[in-house]
Amino acid sequence: MAMWLRACAGLASRLPRRGIEEFWVGGLRDSKLGAGEKEASARTGDPWPAVLLRLKSFEDLHKLWYVLLKEKNFLLAEQHEARQLRIRWKHHGRLKKAKLSMKRILTVLTRREIHQQALRAKEILAKQEEREALETQRFHLEESMKVLNHKIRRSEPRDSVASTAWRSTLRKYEADHADMVKELVPLRKDTMQLLTPDWRYSRKYTDLPGGVNWRKEWVRALQDRVWKPVRNH
């Protein structure tokens, strides 16, 4: 029987531990630690400064966030138990440090995302300027092609040197137009998000149906104006 218990204990020690099994490790409910060890494990340093958090990658910040989240839940559980038992809880500063570190992680990630958005906005602006230049060239090229087509149709019964030159020029313009359209396809796709309306003024994020713009809706003069039929007699 004793051998079977030792075998079961060894098997349990080799099993992977879950997060809930480590929840009370090092805390007041940990039966494996003495009072002195619990007091020593409760001593913490300063919260994470933003200067050091800025040097970490997104994966490291992600892991640190969950470590702090586990620590915060651990401390909140101890605080709730102390309130239930009506005893004094000593680790308010430790909980404050965990919350402050999590707020600083959010601040670092938010500023990093704002910086990335600014870089993406610069790239989109450069592509938009390139697209506008190509669209202007495409428009002028199409107008020139229309003029040449009109001249060729007017001189169709006769074949002359001028009509032959017009046809060769038209073929060259058509080839340039096809190449220009190929260049415009990725630029149009990349700058399509500029046509997306601002979500802050959309009604789909409220309990009202439709996608009416807030600015158009709250124009008082347009709301109260009544259109009356005009009589011409």
| Cα gyration radius (Å) | 36 Å
Q: Gap between N and C termini, in Å? A: 113 Å
Shape: rod-shaped
In N-to-C order, the SSE pattern is: HHHHHHHH
Count of helical regions? 8
- Averaged pLDDT: 76
Helix and strand content put the structural class at mainly alpha
- Hey, roughly how much beta strand do the residues contain? under 5%
Low-confidence stretches: 1-5, 203-209, 216-220
Helical content band:
55-70%
**Major beta sheet summary:** none
How many strands? 0
GO molecular function: structural constituent of ribosome
Family: Belongs to the universal ribosomal protein uL29 family.
Pfam family, one: MRP-L47
Keywords: Mitochondrion, Ribonucleoprotein, Ribosomal protein
Outline of the structure:
The chain is an all-alpha fold.
Task: Note down, in words, how this protein is organized.
It is a single chain. With 233 residues, the protein is an all-alpha fold. Among the domains are: 22-29 and 45-111, no CATH class; 125-201. The chain has helices at residues 2-14, 35-41, 50-53, 58-85, 92-154, 161-190, 214-217, 220-224.
What is the topology?
Layout: H1 2-14, H2 35-41, H3 50-53, H4 58-85, H5 92-154, H6 161-190, H7 214-217, H8 220-224
Identify the notable features of this structure and list them briefly:
disordered N terminus, mainly alpha, Large ribosomal subunit protein uL29m, mitochondrion, MRP-L47_sf, 66% helix, 233 residues
